[in-house]
Amino acid sequence: MKESTLATRIMIAVLCLGVAVYLAVYLAQGWKEDLATTYAYTYSLDVGHEATGILIRTEIPLIGTNGYVDQILAEGAKAAAGDPVALIYSDPSALTTRQSIRSLQAEIEQLQYALESGSQNADAARLDAQVISSIVSLRSLAAQGDLTALEDSALNLRSMVFKRDYTYGDAGAASQIGQLIADKQAQLQELSRSLGQVSTTVFAPASGVFSAGADGWEGTVTPDILDELTADGLAALMGQQYEAAPGVMGKLITDSTWYFAALLDGVDTGLQSGHRYTLDFSGDYYGQVEMTLERISLEDDRTLAIFSCRSRLADTAMLRIQTVDVVIQQLEGIRIPRRALRVATEDVTGEDGSVSQVNRYYVFTVVRSQAWGQAVEVLYTDPAYYLVRPVDQTAADRLRAGDEIILNSSGMYDGKVVR
């Protein structure tokens, strides 16, 4: 009886000890910091300065009579001296007439194409497929509410149907198309005659690029002012307000070289005259333009920079006062969270025997199941991240995009088992 009681007590003691060990291990694991990681990836960054300036071009305002303007040339199109650039109508209904003329011209062109193509042998199956494709395209445009190409799609469908009639031997198709063309040409002549009675044509006085964006600055800011322009003068110029004069319906840009005179805060901008820089437009126009820095002037606490360019004239023809980013440097490296960067201070002995402290930067990555530090240099600092690259970019074990980075901030060392 006593032996049984003793054995029971021993078993209870062992059981309690096992429970205590289990709870201790569980609590220890609960207090242990979980491994937090993320993945590194390649990141490109444009570093530069914000600048506000004015676009300066050689421009001629185009003046017409009072009325309703209908552009003949598209925005940014080139015109030779004497070319018609716009029509001005005295009657507002003439705009509707002009639209009808354009529709008739397009329809006649499609019918003539169908007539010429229909005289040749065509594959019936292919034409059937084209007709079905045209119907599907037309249905898709109507469902989306996209009316920009709806008319062209309808004309294309009609042309396909006529060509199909030819293929299946419809002898009356040719005469039907010919009669349609004759009727529409008669309508076109009548509309053109009525339109000519209420319209005035505006011709280009010189060769150049046409723009409808006349803003009143034409002739006020010209390349002639650039040599004497100062930072104060540019600031005063951008503070002025101009409007296009009555009767001005557009402008011609007569020189392919245009300029951007800009103000930048500070004088330590890193810009150098004669170098090419990328100007990133993100206001009325989204795009990057390569420009040459013609002149730079440091005045008080700001910088005057004058850039020139011989491209993108049509894209920027309507712009005047703009805020841009002048890209000084394009950086490419590996983006990491700020928590991932470690700093270690080392004593460095110089040639004269003096000792100085230097900061070394590391990133710990998971290699199999261990933590290993990778030496990096910081290229750029952001409130949310660092842009870094390996110190030794030829090392086999250098930091690479796709590496698993450890974010835990304490207790890390090379070879530590983390998983």
Structure description:
The protein has 419 residues and is of the alpha+beta class. The chain folds into four domains: 1-26; 37-43 and 335-417, Beta Barrel (conserved putative lor/sdh protein from methanococcus maripaludis s2 fold); 49-61 and 208-332, Elongation Factor Tu (Ef-tu), domain 3 (Beta Barrel), CATH 2.40.30; 91-197, no CATH class. It has seven helices and 20 strands. A six-stranded antiparallel β-barrel has the order 2-10-13-12-11-14. A hairpin with a 5-residue loop joins strand 15 (341-349) and strand 16. Helix 2 packs parallel to helix 4, helix 2 (93-118) runs antiparallel to helix 5 (172-196) and helix 3 packs antiparallel against helix 4. The model has no long low-confidence stretch (mean pLDDT 83).
Helix content: 25-40%
CATH class of the largest domain: Mainly Beta
According to CATH, the homologous superfamily of the largest domain is Efflux pump adaptor protein, beta barrel domain
| Count of separate structural domains | 4
Q: If classified by CATH, what would the architecture of the largest domain be?
A: Beta Barrel
- Described by the principal axes of the CA atoms, the overall outline is flat
